[in-house]
Amino acid sequence: MSAAAPTRSVPDRLRHKTVSAAVADALRQRILNGEFAPGIQLRQDALAEEFGISRIPIREALLQLEATGLVKIVPHRGAVVSGLSVEEVEDIFQLRVQLEPSLLLLSARRFSEDDFHALRSLTEEYGTALQAGQVELWGELNRRFHLDLLRHAGRPRSLGIVSGLLQDCDRPTRLQLSASGDVARADREHTQIVDLCEGGAIEAAADLLRAHIEHAGTSLVAIYRRSGGA
């Protein structure tokens, strides 16, 4: 009978990396869900106590979140949940207006029946979440819909940029829908964009997508200006 293979201990560095990734994911969800509002300080000692771990993986998790723009490491304050300025919101939506309609023109011509089925399933899921007031799902479902529309464009760099912009839009999208009451409009326009693509009216679909993004951006900027920013 052969001897059992020796058990290898997990190196501390790898263990910390694994724990820090889990902590980063948990904190990311709490930030995106609005539990941690922009401007809130994330104290390493308090988080270490809450998670029952040392401060090392907490610090690494916060650095991961800083790399994605969800927190800022501020001298003498530590990690602070990021918010967007009015100018940043305007910039994000202007970039989306420039990129997404042109990518849809390329992508929609390559849609298969399976693609349309997936898009319709996603619009139904989004519509259900909107009607049910499941605010925590709105940003993610919106992001998935827009990326699925553009997935066949064959422009990976542009899609990477759009993906980042949509991630930045997660919290603002939920704010815009909640504050403006545009839930029915968002649901209707997503469905109409898919209808137009399936009917071969791709340029009309791109025009509607452009108007859809422009309206959301204009509405959100107005909300930010009334409230003095995020």
UniProtKB/TrEMBL annotation:
A Pfam family that the UniProt record links to this protein:
FCD
SMART domains, A to Z: FCD, HTH_GNTR
The residues that cross the membrane are none
User: Which segments constitute the HTH gntR-type domain?
Assistant: 17-84
Q: Which domain of life is it from?
A: Bacteria
Q: Which UniProt keywords apply?
A: DNA-binding, Transcription, Transcription regulation
What CDD domains does UniProt report for this protein, alphabetically? Answer: WHTH_GntR
What is the protein's given name? HTH gntR-type domain-containing protein
What organism is the protein native to?
A: Methylobacterium trifolii
